Amino acid sequence: MPTAMRNSLLVCLVLTLCHCSKPAEQLDILINNARIVDVETGRITRDQNIGIRNDTIIFIGDDELTANYSAPQTIEASGKFVIPGLWDMHVHFRGGDGLIEENKNLLPLFVANGITGVREAGGDMTSEIFKWRKEIEDGELTGPVIFTSGPKLDGPRATWAGSIPVTTQDEVVQAVDSLENMGVDFIKIYDSRINREAYIQIIEEAKKRGITTSGHMPFTVMLEEAVNAGLGSVEHLYYILKGASSEEYAVTQDNINGKAGFWGSMDRLIATYDESVARKTFKSLKDNDVYVVPTMHIGNTLSYLDRDNHEQDKYLDYIGPGIIKTYEGRVRGAMRASPAAVERRHALNTTFRGLVPKLNQAGVTLLAGSDTGASNSYVYQGISLHREMAALVETGLSPLEALKAATINGARFLKLDEYYGSIEEGKSGDLLILDANPLEDITNSQRIHTLVLDTKVYSRTELDQMLESVKYNR
Ligand SMILES: [Zn+2]
């Protein structure tokens, strides 16, 4: 027996004999008697204690194990449910220099609603976002962990300010290089003007560099082409609907030849939805690990602006006047729309709602994204992710499936699931303690008792105070 081992055995023996135990290991936070929701399996384990140090879960175990640890902060969680911090997988910070401060003020709104991570899907505030992200990391600013695409890639004269225009092959390479140098977390492609060749090339160039892509998709591209090129995620369901049409090829050709456009193709796509084509397409999405972000809540909201008046929404109190002003654009559009156009919009939304459970049954991984941001009327930062989960459940998903879409699936998309997305030893200590079981009723995700973010504990009262602190006086 080596000397070192013999000595340590001796020490053990002495310790055992004299009943002296080693000093308690120091933690930052100890959560006692919680029920832990396993978002992968839906299993709930009772009477668990969770030890957190430096942002990370050090141990999960019973009282006997816990006796080895001590922490300055202890949270009694008996009867409560612990879930990972929620991630909104589609948000925007945008609206021009005049709205930078108002966008910054939205950060605590996410936190106060239990959103500990956001995937920012492109806008015109990239340098600010990188700055906020650093300040949040350094504990100087309260906000969720931010993952960002930086500026969107699009064709010339793009719809959204801040987009990088690409047309030629050289421009695509340069643009993807510049995003890589910026250190973006993924690349977002938009479809207002981009040509089909540039679109496909972006996906391929990104893939070469090991960067994930997410996109809208021009109707001049077949969904299958984007999937084969390696697209990482499909945002919204227009493109899914297109890929489920028996006439996708003809619609694509008409778009290439200028005989049809995006909105002009929609009725035809609804009318030619084909169950067997859909099944094949959804299987290909699954097999190629393409994620889909249905954005149901914003669809439900914007599709009914003709009917629903939001002027008394409580959440408007937390949104700056400049951002509220940007809401007017879509409201005007809805009011100007002809009855037939309004009818079509409703029908499209209903069609989308029908697609979600089919995607889910086919095994396609879904992400919960609210698409909250300036110009996206009445879809409020923070709360809209809960509404998205509820909207997903309304379409037929189980609460567990909706919860996955807002936790582990997002972590997987960003290839960060080794550290984020579920409650496990060695993983992030960003978590929510809920008063009621979210697997019984997904709206229980809103019943936040305590939030732990970045090794800081926020009680319900403190979260309410945080909300109050970002309230505008009007
Ligand atoms: Zn968006």
Account of the 3D structure:
With 474 residues, the protein is an alpha/beta fold. The protein has two domains: 21-83 and 426-469, Urease, subunit C, domain 1, CATH 2.30.40; 85-413, TIM Barrel (Alpha-Beta Barrel), CATH 3.20.20. The protein has helices spanning 3-18, 63-66, 100-104, 107-112, 126-137, 169-182, 196-208, 223-229, 238-243, 248-256, 266-271, 275-287, 296-302, 321-326, 328-336, 339-361, 383-395, 399-405, 408-413, 460-469, and strands at residues 25-26, 29-37, 44-53, 56-61, 69-70, 73-76, 81-84, 86-91, 115-120, 145-148, 153-154, 164-165, 187-189, 213-215, 233-235, 291-293, 431-434, 448-453, 456-459. The strands form five sheets. Strands 2, 3, 4, 6, 7, 17, 18 and 19 form an eight-stranded mixed beta sheet that branches. A hairpin with a 2-residue loop joins strand 3 and strand 4 (56-61). Helix 6 (169-182) crosses helix 7, helix 13 packs across helix 17 and helix 17 (383-395) packs across helix 18. The chain starts with a helix and ends in a 5-residue tail after the last helix. The model is unreliable at 9-19 (pLDDT under 50). It binds zinc ion. Zinc ion (ZN) binds next to loops.
